[in-house]
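new request in #modeling-help
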Amino acid sequence: MSEAPAAPRTASADRARLEGIGLLVRPPQPRAGRRVLPARVAAMCAVELQKLRHDRTELYTRAVQPALWLLIFGQTFTRIKAIPTDGIPYIDYLAPGIIAQSAMFIAIFYGIQIIWERDAGVLNKLLVTPTPRSALITGKAFAAGVKSLVQAVVVIVIAALLGVALTWNPLKLLGVAVVVVLGSAFFSCLSMTIAGIVLSRDRLMGIGQAITMPLFFGSNALYPVSVMPGWLQAVSKVNPLSHQVDALRGLLLGTPADLPADFAVLAVAAALGIAAASSLLGRLAR
Amino acid sequence: MTGDAAAEAVTCTGLAYAFGGTKAVDGLDLTVREGEVFGLLGPNGAGKTTAIRCITTLLPVPPGMVGVFGHDAARDRMAVRRLLGYVPQQLSADAGLTGRENVDLFARVFDVPRRERAERVAQALAAVDLADAADRLASTYSGGMVRRLELAQALVSAPRLLILDEPTIGLDPIARTSVWEHIEAVRAATGMTVLVTTHYMDEADHYCDRVGLMHRGRVRALGTPVELRRGLGERRRAEGTADADTLPTLEDVFRDVAGSGLDDESGDFRDVRSTRRTAHRVG
């Protein structure tokens, strides 16, 4: 009657083997509403750490650039003494800027990653789970933060080896971690927001390149805001990267910093970024 | 509508979805009964994947068009998602994670409590014969293994409705059979409803309880494979265009309902690209 199947069917044998699947017939109990977000964020961060554990290449290769900034740019400009840094060695002044920069470069990649996940079907599958869009984005944002934290540790170790006088006060280091995570959350959401608008990897790569350099050079990462022309000072004041660097410098080196304002700007920027990226995430699945 | 809502896993009522000016789904009426394996059949570009993406809440639809176990896909999205296990067309397991970690992620996002997570993940992996390969990276898996891993990801949350979009695309015949056998075995053991799309008519004939033949955004014929084939056979005998002994295949039925024009508009560019990509990853 019907065409011969490609191989004999062994459904009954399968059924016998499937006896140990008792749990798979019972749907799990949904978590209460307010506990969903932290649980999803934890799940996304866990995935990020698992991936880093399996493949540390990215960790190593990404450490090269900040190391070169400190070793070559930092060492050279320390000798030139061209940049007014209020008496601290330039390499000390530079180290927090490089932490912020390397965190931003990691985070700005997240839009490309989410488009890749869309193309691979991974994103669609996650969007069909009982996970609010905002939880998915927050998870990604914190995952970017986790990756950046690992990076920050690398930069701090290199800086310490180069003789930068950093704080080892655990509370201040905790503050550093919070600043790095908030900054990464904002920049990854900025990138994912653009991804939700342009929808293609090629366009996003162009835009990513076009915005990272101005964000970096239009901040206080390499030089103080006071040496900038007036219009650039105005840009730098609203640039979250400047606030991130300011906070990192204040915490790691003890330079004068407006920490409450810095934390407030970073927290608000991250929250706005999460809201914008979440509202555009559905577009990627269409 | 017939029957009580509880016995209907999926209902589509006049489902329509257009990408710009292209009507991908154009007035789809469909009912999937609880516990059956329902096959949505058609060539590339028939609107199968778009219909699936409406049912899975990936595409926004107006209220009243799509229901899953009585929950409206527009009004009650979270409730719908909680009931679904979804395997998309692409091989979508995360290659940077092990098989176990891939399944564990889905246990986490479906709120499986920590105390039973490891056991549940192990059971899902065992159900698809991946227990031995569970701690290898998914990048080392063959195409058929990735598909089975995705099945485990979908099963770990004990879905009432399993949705598979072209589950055997790009797989070799042995892997295809293996994927189907696992789907059948799991269905037999759990009693879940399965909605599957395919363009392999022989698979649908063999494994689906009922099929809907889709062409240009609508279901053109609906029934069990045998019903559809007998129907065409009887009509052809009445017309005197066929002899009594040979029963038409499901593909004959499809050619009959689709009429001409089957070959000229199959699949848009994106479909072809994603199919190629899948084929490439399968290697």
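bot summary: Residues 1-16 of chain A have pLDDT under 50 and may be disordered.
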